[in-house]
Amino acid sequence: MYQRKIEIRGARTNNLRSLDLVLPRGQLVVFVGVSGSGKSSLVFDTIAAEAGYQLNETFPPFVRNRLPKWARPEASQIDGLSPVVVIDQRRIGGNARSTVGTVTDAWTYLRLLFSRVSTPYVGESNHFSFNDPAGMCRTCSGLGEVVVSAVDRFLDLDRSLKDGAILLPGFGNGGYWYAQYADIGTFDPDTPLRDWTQAERDALLFGGEHAARLGRRPPKDYEGVVERFERIYLRTPDNLSDRKQEVIARFTRSTVCPDCHGDRLNEASRTATVLGHTIGEMARMEIAELAALVPRVSEPAVAPVVAALTARLDALVTIGLGYLHLGRATTTLSGGESQRVKTVKHLGSSLVEMIYVFDEPTVGLHPQDVAAMTTLLQRLRDKGNTVLVVEHDPAVMAIADQIVEIGPDAGDGGGRLVFQGTFAELRRADTPTATALARQRPVKERPRTPRGAVTIAAATRNNLKNVTVDIPTGVMTVFTGVAGSGKSSLAAELVAQHDAVVIDQRPVSTNRRSTPITYTGIAAPIRRLFARHNGVPAGLFSANSEGACPDCKGLGVIYTDLAFMEGQETVCDTCQGRRFTREVLRYRVDGLSIADVDDLTIAEAVRRLADPAITRALRHLEEVGLGYLRLGQPLSTLSGGECQRVKIAKELRDATGPTLYVLDEPTTGLHLRDIDTLLNVLDNLVAHGHTVVVIEHNLDVIRRADWLVDLGPGPGRHGGQILYQGPVAGLTGTATARALRDAAVR
Ligand code: ADP
Ligand code: ADP
Ligand code: ZN
Ligand code: ZN
């Protein structure tokens, strides 16, 4: 019989404690709980992962290899799943061909429109596709910009070839290409490049003519470093590995295409018009404006195209993205914007009985915009889908059919089902979320006195309307305003005009070997602690000593490097990932072996590894509420919000003079309760003499501000002005003022 329930038995992914849960299908379920309690482990790493895994299994291996990889979750049993669509905040692709228009399919319809009714007639719709040879600008291959080698970053002139003067991967001493430069007798591998002649350096880099003129000519098939780099990296098909993309990002820069000036299309296609506008102009128009313009196309032959396009554009406007334009590269969107763009695509989908999984869909949304998002979630459900949402915003909890709380605490203290029921029932329950919901935080009555001010002068970035504004120093200022009003633009301008440190949610490290241990630099103090306690040399506990497992060299994994492809990693058979020899693992501190240290949480480590250097380094991570992280947990597994707090901790430890800090939505991923912790951390920064500027929608943060800069009144072109600057108590008449008032009466 067809199942109306999703049943999960014995889920044990990450911190989940053999969790059992039955969820209704076809409903909107909101998952709550303190940060780190296990919501993502349940919703993403268990439910979505199992659904993805099972779906992949239905495809032949060849297809499977091209699908996203899902690790099968640890659970005794999971039943009642259907295909799952994950709509998270991960930025939409690093692909420059991806724009708001292409990912929502609006561009497809616009192209179709131009192909049918443009003046003059140009051709089929592929003539308006910058991804198609028939339409693309030849110079930039339809990218709108051209990527050029950043040759100045290729070489370290102070080194010789032997010492690795060529900084490109694979070209250094020992690299695959090294011999083609060092061993051909043309260049002196022992002399620093600075001491070469300009002609020699040019020959090394550019080959061709430059090489032909040299006294000691290189072989006939010689290829300069730049030529070779561009051939390998820039003239290969699109789907580049992460590794290649990272190299490209490091060694190239891009500039606007000299031919199409960013329109991406060839001459014929970029000059044809509809309603007097070229397709490029339409791509640069605000979506809200375009949505009003398109219906004026009256040719009956294209009525269905006009209808479909208008529907897409209206959907974008509905979820508060009317201020974007179709040509906007998705790589420049914020996490919240990316998520909403992805949602639009699914609204148009006619699939039913799907499971949609959302990660904090209100991120980046002003309370005023949240209603549009909740409507959207309800619409998805009403089409017959199951909608699962991880969310901290009470406005979303309020529309849920059912709420599931995971907790009660973070990490090992969480991972259990603590509540399941309606919002009304939750408010009467005794859980961390219920407690936090019941608490009302007042507006700060006595704001701190600024030490001085820095001025943002004549700012015109993006939509800013020539704004000049003073930001008080030595206090906490919050930038508020509806999504797209210009908060980030103003913050970017602040950073451009003054020395400031941006503490964002970008990954702390993309290196999978980077952990809280490496990041805080406590590896050496830990080794010394083990040495002291056991009366043996500290070197024994180092990953590159005789104490390390001889087979994996202390890495715990065996890494197979496959030249230009992604490498392969497998757990070391000899040490089972424990990295050290048996003898070394016998030495203990407080009953722990050196390998056990990895499994300690930061909070446990502060207590059990009694050493001032370790305590000092870890204390700040505990202060920012990350005491639940494990010392050996790869930093690449941290959420955006966790990364941001790791960075705050580092600043708390390292900053010397008074510093200006800029934070973009630091409450992302934070439970109401953890927001108190965050606010204390920010207060702590101010107490250390720093200046803090925060972009934030969260009302608790706004209430605690010393100073407010409220932007608006609308998004995009309709915003970009300062509506108010001053203490929170004085704010009236704006969308932010209304949100504060409405929340107070709730
Ligand atoms: P939430 O979504 O409620 O904030 P998570 O499910 O992300 O919580 O995390 C629950 C616990 O599992 C945390 O202690 C977190 O540090 C840990 N955790 C999350 N992902 C991983 C991972 N890939 N490896 C190890 N531990 C993890
Ligand atoms: P907020 O931070 O208040 O949400 P933003 O400062 O991000 O607003 O955006 C203000 C306006 O500037 C919007 O119309 C937005 O689309 C535009 N904008 C922001 N970043 C870019 C960019 N990199 N390229 C083009 N337009 C941008
Ligand atoms: Zn071009
Ligand atoms: Zn090993």
What features would you describe in this structure?
With 746 residues, the chain is of the alpha/beta class. The chain has 5 domains: 5-91 and 334-437, 3-Layer(aba) Sandwich (Rossmann fold), CATH 3.40.50; 100-144 and 258-318, ABC transporter ATPase like fold (Up-down Bundle); 147-256, ABC transporter ATPase domain-like (Helicase, Ruva Protein, domain 3), CATH 1.10.8; 452-508 and 638-745, Rossmann fold; 516-635, ABC transporter ATPase  like domain (ABC transporter ATPase like fold, Up-down Bundle). The protein contains 28 helices and 23 strands. The strands form 7 sheets. Strands 5-10-11-3-12-13 form a 6-stranded mixed sheet, with helices on both faces. The protein has a 6-stranded mixed sheet with strand order 17-20-21-16-22-23, with helices on both faces. Strand 12 and strand 13 form a beta hairpin. Helix 12 (287-293) packs antiparallel against helix 13, helix 14 (335-347) packs parallel to helix 15 (367-382) and helix 23 runs antiparallel to helix 24 (612-623). The radius of gyration is 28 Å and the shape is globular. 44% of the residues are buried. Bound molecules: adenosine-5'-diphosphate (2 copies) and zinc ion (2 copies). One adenosine-5'-diphosphate is lined by residues 14-15, 33, 35-41, 410-411, 628-629, 633, 637.
Q: List ligands, each type once.
A: adenosine-5'-diphosphate, zinc ion
Instruction: Supply the number of helical segments.
Output: 28
Helix percent reads: 25-40%
Q: Which second-level CATH architecture of the largest domain applies?
A: 3-Layer(aba) Sandwich
Strand order of the largest sheet: 5-10-11-3-12-13
Distance between the termini: 44 Å
Query: How many strands, which pairing sense, and closed or not: the largest β-sheet?
Result: 6 strands, mixed
- The total of beta strands comes to 23
